[in-house]
């Protein structure tokens, strides 16, 4: 019984790791964010552009999506809009990252369905706190 309790506890922790899709075109920032998220016990699926992420999101079934706003090709606006328009993905919390501080940018993102809009440069604590809040830790 003691061994089963030990095993169950460890398997439960392993099985409960949350999956994050991270979309960021700046390689160094993407790598840094990926490292931070993995250190905080998230399974991270990284993409350098919105199209690559969009092609994989339904298969990955992430618990949350974190995306840069300004990217070549499918930008954060379009990725957010496409994710929120599908019944199979519309429930996924979505955090947008941007260096743009204008209220109109934030309002546009929230109108498209963003759950959070964070300003770059990011503070690690703020990012993790927002993720945990959206995932209801």
Write up this protein:
This protein is an alpha/beta fold. It has a single domain (19-134), classed as Response regulator (Rossmann fold), CATH 3.40.50.2300. The protein contains six helices and five strands; from the N terminus they run αβαβαβαβαβα. Strands 2-1-3-4-5 form a five-stranded parallel β-sheet, sandwiched between helices. Mean pLDDT is 91; it is low at 1-13.
Q: Tell me the helix content.
A: 40-55%
Overall pLDDT level: 91
CATH homologous superfamily - what is it? Response regulator
Provide the gyration radius in Å. Answer: 16 Å
Largest sheet properties? 5 strands, parallel
| Fraction in beta strands | 15-25%
What attributes does this structure have?
single chain; globular; five-stranded parallel sheet; 50% helix; Rossmann fold; alpha/beta; 137 residues; 5 strands
Question: How are the SSEs ordered, and which strands pair?
Answer:
Blueprint lengths: L1 H14 L3 E5 L3 H13 L3 E5 L2 H11 L3 E5 L7 H10 L8 E5 L4 H10 L3 E4 L4 H11 L3
Parallel strand pairs: 1-2, 1-3, 3-4, 4-5
Helix pairs in contact: 3-4
